[in-house]
Amino acid sequence: CRLKCLSAFLMPSRAESSGGMARWNRILLILAPCLASSSALALGSSARAVAGSAATSDKNAARRVLLQSSATLETAVAHQVLRNRLASTRSHLKDIELRIEDYTNPVEMGVKTEAGWTGQTVEELRSRLARPTKKVALALIHVQADLKDHGRSLDAGAVSDVQAALKAGAVSLTSVDGILKAMSGDDSARALKELASIRSALGAFDKTLAEIAPVAT
Fold it and tell me: Is the pTM of this model over 0.70?
């Protein structure tokens, strides 16, 4: 197009003899297609640039949505793992409480003023507590490991509650031994005090479970 325009400009024409105006009109008529072609090319290039930019923006937006979804799913899984472990620990701890209450309820409810526990009673309860106590101890170890692995997905308050529940759970295991010793000495007051510690641990687990409710995905 440029060669055509240049040739037309250099070649003489009859219109040139009639005046400069006719010559310029001819030049403009010849250049018009070239100008139109250049404008079309520029518009096409601009449109392709805009389309490319939009495509890149869409890809980046999709990538961000995918990353956010992945993070949300990871948080939900972490919460569920901890909830399941804490719920299991609480269940075993509740089992311990109920088995102890079979021996302490008469005194706690005022049916008896003296418990009248014997060595045989102590061994009987010790045997009944062996399995749930072992389960609580193992569950606490697992909760501690889960907190280390998934704690970053919890807020500071939830982490603090899990740590408090772990501490209370460990104390409750000490209280089990304390109750057996109290029963050996027929010391109902001490036995009830140790039982209160186990109930406090159950409360700590309830609070923690409420704090790390399942996350909607």
Answer: no
